[in-house]
Design a protein that fits this description.
The chain is mainly β. The chain is built from 1 helix and 8 strands. Strands 1, 2, 3, 4, 5, 6, 7 and 8 form an 8-stranded antiparallel β-sheet that branches. The radius of gyration is 21 Å and the shape is globular. This is DUF6230 family protein.
C-alpha cells in the first residue's frame, strides 16, 4: 500500500537504511581497530611531534604520498606503531593569522603518567632519535607487512618492519597522525601568539 503523499514508509526506509548503517558501522570499527587508514586532505604545512621516550610492540613502515586540499602531493614515510607507550608527548603547529603567527600546542604525559596509543599511524617527513629495533626486516615487500594490523602498502614497494622498537629523544615533522586508541594523561592545550613550539 502506497503511503499518502508527504508521509514516509518507515518499513521501506529501514530496508534501505539498515545496510547503509551497517556499512558505516563496519568502517568505523575498522578505523578504530587500525584496519583502515583514514583518508583526508592534509594541511599545507607539517607539525612538530616530540617525546622523551617511545617504545612499541610492532612497527611497520613504507613510503606514502599525502595530498593537501589543492591536490599538492607531499612525500612521507608512513609509520605504523602497534602498541606504544610514550613518556611524554608534545605536538605543535604554527598557524598564520591576521594577528601574527599563532602556535597551537598540545602536551601530555610527564609527571601525569605515561601516554599510551594503539594502532597509531604517523605520516612523517622525518624522524630523529636514538633507536633500538627487535627482529627488524628491511626491504620487505610493503604489501606483506604484518607487524601492525592494517598497515600495508602496495605490492613491490619497499617496506620495513620490526617486532618491537624503542626510540629516545624523538623529534619528527609530521603531516598527519591517526590512532585507534589514544590515552593522554595530563593533557594541556595552548594557543599563543608567537608561542614556543615543541623544538
Amino acid at each position: 500500500m502506497t503511503p499518502p503523499e508527504g508521509k514516509t514508509s518507515w518499513k521501506k526506509a529501514a530496508v534501505v537504511a539498515v545496510p547503509a548503517l551497517a556499512a558505516v558501522a563496519a568502517m568505523a570499527v575498522g578505523m578504530a581497530e587500525g584496519v583502515l587508514a583514514s583518508s583526508f586532505a592534509v594541511s599545507g604545512s607539517a607539525f612538530q611531534v616530540s617525546s622523551g621516550e617511545l617504545s612499541s610492540k610492532g612497527l611497520a613502515s613504507y613510503v606514502h604520498v599525502d595530498r593537501s586540499a589543492d591536490g599538492t602531493g607531499h612525500p612521507v614515510v608512513l609509520l605504523g606503531i602497534g602498541d606504544a607507550t610514550l613518556s611524554d608527548i608534545c605536538q605543535s603547529a604554527q598557524v598564520d593569522t591576521p594577528l601574527g603567527t599563532v602556535v597551537f600546542k598540545l602536551t601530555a604525559g610527564g609527571r601525569a603518567g605515561q601516554v599510551r596509543a594503539s594502532n597509531l599511524v604517523i605520516d612523517s617527513e622525518d624522524l630523529v632519535g636514538d633507536a633500538a629495533f627487535g627482529r627488524v626486516q628491511l626491504g620487505r615487500d610493503a604489501s606483506t607487512l604484518d607487524a601492525v594490523p592494517g598497515v600495508q602498502g602496495e605490492a613491490g614497494q619497499f617496506g620495513l618492519q620490526a617486532s618491537e622498537v624503542s626510540v629516545s629523544g624523538v623529534r619528527s615533522h609530521a603531516r598527519s597522525a591517526t590512532g585507534g586508541d589514544f590515552k593522554l594523561k595530563g593533557l594541556s592545550l595552548d594557543v599563543n601568539l608567537n608561542g614556543k613550539a615543541c623544538f
